[in-house]
Recover the amino acids of this structure.
């Protein structure tokens, strides 16, 4: 059994990790770190866990964590950086859900996060944990920068066309819609039920940090530096991201050809489900699961592809992907503990 | 492996059965019966199942079903009755999710369903599948009448006080609130999103069929025939029933005493979680799980107990309970395939 | 034109007052008091008001308020009491939306609010502003205690049967379901979108302060002191309260007879719409309007009446009723500015 | 008083017309046409209208309609065409909410609707009822083609940049999100509450008919024929469209400059509210109102403008705009009956 610590266990990404890990056959949760709820049982904070997991949440205790094999750090931005070096020193594998270890280039981090990176040498060592793209590197890593939710959905949706040089890199637009769990459990007027329900809005246009992550990975795939528009929207549901991606084609293609190309590109990926031509993804098809659903459509009038990809932001966009990374790190079948269907209802 | 048929697989109870059975370690789904979607893959009808279960739905084919060990019948009221005798003849165990096999007395069925029962001898043989109350009988049954959703929630909430003769049987009121999955997948203006969302209403006051089921079981427990008020309400959410039960106490008690009594009554039940005094259940604590959460409160001014119980109507109120029954029928640990925490989010 | 001040204008009751007053033909809003948003335009805080009302919010300035004819105080509990005497001294009519001036007896206030009343002489003078019950007294009052939302819905639903001595006063149960605006705009984990949506729960069983208000008014109507069970529930919608009221009948009646009795009791009331036998209210029929919809049903088996009443908690349960009171205070037609249909959608 | 007929009164656009007209000071509703509910009172079909409007719905009766001054036709696509010529012959003004009379060129209609237009001479006469763009023509028209919901939102959002030749006409993308009322009241599995809630999806990519309407109007404004990507999405709320519009700038601009340009372009328009730089629209700011809220943002890295516009799809996108057109046709102040703030809650 893999002994696991979840630090930041009572946020939404953390608790989804806990929920998924309680059904993982190879993992035993040993430590639940929570600043806000230290001293309380996790099953008192999240009563859905009663009779399932009655472990007490604790303040960060490095000695206790050090007895684990892996630590998931789902801490607020910045907090991860101060803890992770100690965990690595003590021999743990670390899967970090913050934005701190996702970049190749500290300058990009600095440009989008507004401060120099505090441990550039670890940044250099860390592997970007988008399993479908970096599987081999992940297997041998010590430190994983688990990707952002918007980024997972956007990168996997755009990758095949770019890899085949079929998309003009100058006019890529990603219009993404996210459920409210993406904003976390912190209080804020914008997340009050009465302010959120029956409401849709865009936010952080042209400035959302995930833009830089998407650009980094898609530039690799395209083989050239690219920039794109990324617009996040908040929609009145809990789970789910739908990214609608617009790319001008470099040569005429049909929807069927693009669908075939996507199916081939992802043919070995259990968690990626490419739709047939004429089908489109919906967030309810992926909610609660680690799947990425992708549908494609070519607008022949404009010679433009419209790709739609859907994930559950707190599963494939956070907790599920973290477990997928853990499975790779520990030599397990990548699907272990993650092969359940989405809720649909 | 238990070979299972799900008849009526594409309704909401049916598809939740399918979802749960795909993670059950001892079951293989062999037949998916669906009149409306015969010839289509279940994963085309419910695309959350892609890469998980790609079985084709079929019209009822008794020979194919006969190769199974158990059939779950989630058919419209009345349709069950015409199929079940044949299935029993061929040696299957049958777990019926309709109202057809839930009654001790055919006259009660006739009074509430408005027609004579078509197979009173099977009704006499069938066992009421509320596992916590009829566990031993269930183990050796051929035919289980799986309880209704409102009834499961109401009966388990009221049982301990009645069993202890602490409740006046004359003034019991059950005010229940249900999510919309309880109404099924059939079309109807009342279930159009724009008519349902931001709306709450009562319906079928004093006439809902589940009243008779609740009265039957609580009369057994109380040791005397009783009648009660049952009022169902439709609330704007998918999953969940919350039943608020009012009972006049036959002698003064405190909330703490009643909570202790409930905890004792259900002390061996994994799926029943009695709250401490001061805590109350919420439907999000049980959504997606087979748990029943019960909170109690005594109004000392009035010497009246207010009991609140919560379930997921399509899990403990339908599909999950059906699997719990199957586990009992086949000698498995009752929790097998059902021990996951609720979604919370 | 009536010059009006709204104190506490940026809470949900306050802003609904503002929304309704902007279409009232006889009112001009002069002062918008808001501690949290002083110095900001109301149309910046609530951008739906752009091009409609661009007034700046201010800290409490008694001299400015004193130029008005009427003040609506939608302040947090307790804050009202410190301001209202000054307003009355300066000659304003005051309609208070807090619980401070709703009681006949300071001892009841003290018992339920946990502290002595600070101005019992004003409490003695104030009129309980449930227009349908106290219309004549309201017309000549200086200070109105605007009723609570649950109380309006419950009292009007139960009154006719009690007035006719047809209900046993010993076993009255009010099971009420409220949308989330009832909790106000203050932040709290329980009101985070992800915690509220897809969730229903009971709260404050046997202890909610509105119980005392309902008991006070229904005791008057019944002509004898009565106590009852009141259970509030939170449901995942913004607007609306549905109260389901159970009363044992003192003599056998039919649903038709009770419906006729209710229609007669409220025959002159524009804002009360009694349903025909067989019809039931829904919150979407009243959302956005000042109407109270009431449906009745008699359970002949139990000789028990089940009454269902529905209001919009922030209109008839707060802002709309406050305006109805203002109309009475200033000799206007009671419907002025309030005769619009609900939103339905 | 203007005597008005609403044909198709019981669909969502129709009933919103009815709701708004009941508060219009210059209109009396004389005829409510409804095939599905003929013989029933509108207040029985939509019980929010009780005590407000108790008129009976009727089958189409041209003689009764002929006594009116104006007819609003909110009929299914195609049905309008068979009725409207008769109404015009009898001297009524007609405001048609279908797609039948929105095109300059019958060939465009035929291309997108898949059949020849049945009355091209009326199509030639009809005026496209987007008031802010065609106000003078509307005033003297007999027949108004009331614009689609997506189109109103998209055209008004894109117009100013195109009018100033600041946008490249080759790479315009409109990514629009609509609430479910946009799909109407007809039954369909996709609109079942349990299928819609907690779900977002795109549909009809590159093929939605509103594309042609948007292209027609924006081509006029740009002074050159243009084509664009239009992608509709369904989001889990009742009211509201948010359109996110991407346009490459033909010369560098700042957000502030674009905001100033928009404010100037719409400086005389009551119903268009341009946000300051840094502010973005939300559907809850416009829900229930006839306003169009527009926010702008320039992505300097990409020299691309991102424009976000929001409307209530059944008000400014249907019923409200129809009334705005009526006000123009009858020489009333354009705001009459439409100057209320949105609901916000």
């Amino acid at each position: 059994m893999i002994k696991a610590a979840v630090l930041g266990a009572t946020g939404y990404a953390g608790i989804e990790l806990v929920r998924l890990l309680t059904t993982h056959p190879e993992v035993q949760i040993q430590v639940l770190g929570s600043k806000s709820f230290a001293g309380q049982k996790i099953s008192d904070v999240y009563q859905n866990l009663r009779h399932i997991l009655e472990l007490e949440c604790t303040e960060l205790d490095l000695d206790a964590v050090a007895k684990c094999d892996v630590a998931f750090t789902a801490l607020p931005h910045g907090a991860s950086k101060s803890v992770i070096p100690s965990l690595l020193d003590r021999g743990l594998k670390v899967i970090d859900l913050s934005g701190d270890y996702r970049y190749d280039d500290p300058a990009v981090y600095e440009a989008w996060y507004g401060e120099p990176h505090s441990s550039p040498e670890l940044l250099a060592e860390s592997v970007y944990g988008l399993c479908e793209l970096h599987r081999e590197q992940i297997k041998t890593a010590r430190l994983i920068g688990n990707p952002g939710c918007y980024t997972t959905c956007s990168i996997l949706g755009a990758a095949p066309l770019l890899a085949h040089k079929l998309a003009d890199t100058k006019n890529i637009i990603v219009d993404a819609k996210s459920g409210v769990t993406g904003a976390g459990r912190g209080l804020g007027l914008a997340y009050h039920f009465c302010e959120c329900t029956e409401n849709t809005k865009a936010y952080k246009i042209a400035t959302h940090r995930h833009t830089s992550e998407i650009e980094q990975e898609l530039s690799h795939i395209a083989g050239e530096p690219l920039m794109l528009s990324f617009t996040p929207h908040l929609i009145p549901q809990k789970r789910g991201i739908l990214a609608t991606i617009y790319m001008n084609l470099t040569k005429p293609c049909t929807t069927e050809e693009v669908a075939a190309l996507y199916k081939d590109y992802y043919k070995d990926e259990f968690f990626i489900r490419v739709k047939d031509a004429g089908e489109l993804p919906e967030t309810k098809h992926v909610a609660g699961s680690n799947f990425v659903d992708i549908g494609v459509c070519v607008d022949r009038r404009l010679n433009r592809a419209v790709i739609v990809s859907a994930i559950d932001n707190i599963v494939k966009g956070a907790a599920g992907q973290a477990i997928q990374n853990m499975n790779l790190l520990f030599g397990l079948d990548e699907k272990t503990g993650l092969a359940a269907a989405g809720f649909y209802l």
